[in-house]
Hints:
This protein has 366 residues and is α+β, with helices and mostly antiparallel strands.
Amino acid sequence: xxxxxxxxxxxxxxxxxxxxxxMHPDLMNAAEERLSNAFDKGLLIDYxxxxxxxxxxxxxxxxxxxxxxxxxxxxxxxxxxxxEIAKELKxxxxxxxxxxxxxxxxxxxxGPGVAEMEFEERKSEPVIIFMADKTSPGAWNLPIYKIxxxxxxxxxxxxxxxxxxxxxxxxxxxxxxxxxILSAPDEIYDLLMFIGAMRRFMIKNVxxxxxxxxxxxxxxxxxSLIAGRYVGKDDPVLIVRCQxxxxxxxxxxxxxxxxxLVEGWMRGSHxxxxxxxxxxEANPSRFDGPPRVIAAGFQLCGGKLIGPRDLFDxxxxxxxxxxxxxxxxxxxxxxxxEPHRLGLDDMEYTTMPQLMKKLxxxxxxx
Length: 366
Ligand code: F6R
Ligand code: MG
Ligand code: MG
């Protein structure tokens, strides 16, 4: 097959089972049916429906390019019909990520998260799709940096001539709705100044410097900023292409052997470790967490999704999971104190304005 293909991953939380911990199979079956119809009509080359925690993930390949109305409408309609089922079953938070009543050309800004990339399929095209629950898109900054800029993680940056030139990072300022491209290794200190502040600056795309080839694409929607109020965590997705002049599968997975601290645990208001788990363990239950990440590996074949392989289903990640549990215990021991609880401006639940009002008269000069 010639010509570019588009890989679109569009996700939403349209109802949890039980609470926010997981997904009812009826929702997945309904999504499967919708995408199967689109496949039969020739809109999709292939698709895969999965979930991480309470998030429904639609993985689709097609020839329609980025931000395509038909593809986005298919995802939107799928989420709407799954919401109907979630309502019938009185699942928790039915339709919680659908912030609008009517579709208007793209799901962007309407609640669902989107990561998409368009490229010419190589002779062999391994891709990994990371999906996380109980966290936000800033959670990808650290692993993306390690994959594409850290020679202690990615040996290929040093010893593979085809990636020795480095990568370019497109960083979005989600507060100011601006973006900038920064280059590694030459600008890594500048880059780190921004992406270390992962609530505000998020890596959206990564390109190989030598030829501009797209290497990674992440969802950077922030539901709270879209809606102007708390409407659930963003629970991001990330697509990474691997091998042959891009980081190897093992180099792409390696950063997740360190369970770094991310925001989003319990009520979107706590920090906790991001735990890499196999698909069947992506059911965050303890204190509504700790945050989880799964990795679905595919080989593309003329746009067909050969897979998935459950890439964190490997005892080599057991230590990371054990460590994540230790970190979870340590963080939980802080109870309502920072830095387990997020800073005052960052919490998605707060009683502070009411308390300030109630106790106003009791504050006296110190
Ligand atoms: C959901 C999440 C949960 C909820 C919590 C309270 O992504 O992070 O921890 O915030 O279960 O939910 P409500 O207020 O709906 O009872
Ligand atoms: Mg939920
Ligand atoms: Mg979720």
